[in-house]
Amino acid sequence: QVQLVESGGGLVQTGGSLKLSCAASGRTFSTYAVGWFRQAPGKERDFVAAMRWNDGTTRYADSVKGRFTVFRDNAKNTVYLQMNSLNPEDTAVYYCAVALGAFSYISNRYDYWGQGTQVTVSS
């Protein structure tokens, strides 16, 4: 089992920044990739970014490329999502997830999920 706890969400104005954290515990050595997803009210859960654990390779949704960065702190077993130049379309609940065997943008390839953290961007 892997447990994930997100934090860092909040309310920010357009153009502002937030850094989300995803702290992992449990059988984290089995992690293949860590992903970030988001879900706005009435919409499906969308891929945001992911990192392959063994070599740090990252991938991003087109909508966040150049604005969001995923990085990690191995000593803290924590993955971060730095979000810059936020706009109201970024408003959503953000989730981190761990995949045991895939480096994917598809949510059902992920095995463990955090509880989510709300990000609200005001215009």
SS field, number of helical segments: 0
SS class: mainly beta
Low-confidence segments, ≥5 residues, pLDDT <50?
none
SS elements, strand count? 11
What's the mean pLDDT score? Answer: 95
Quote the distance from N terminus to C terminus. 40 Å
Q: In percent terms, what proportion of residues is strand? A: over 45%
Notes on the structure:
The chain has 123 residues and is mainly β. 0% of the residues lie in helices and 53% in strands. It is built from no helices and 11 strands. The chain has strands at 2-7, 10-13, 18-26, 33-39, 45-52, 58-60, 68-73, 78-83, 92-99, 112-113, 117-122. The strands form 2 sheets. Strands 2, 4, 5, 6, 9, 10 and 11 form a 7-stranded mixed sheet that branches. Strand 5 (45-52) and strand 6 form a beta hairpin. The mean pLDDT is 95.
What is the strand and helix layout of this fold?
Elements (H helix, E strand, L loop, with lengths): L1 E6 L2 E4 L4 E9 L6 E7 L5 E8 L5 E3 L7 E6 L4 E6 L8 E8 L12 E2 L3 E6 L1
Parallel strand pairs: 2-11
Antiparallel strand pairs: 1-3, 3-8, 4-5, 4-9, 5-6, 7-8, 9-10, 9-11
List descriptors:
11 strands; mainly beta; four-stranded antiparallel β-sheet; 123 residues
Tell me briefly what this model is.
The protein is an all-beta fold and 123 residues long. The chain is 0% helix and 53% strand.
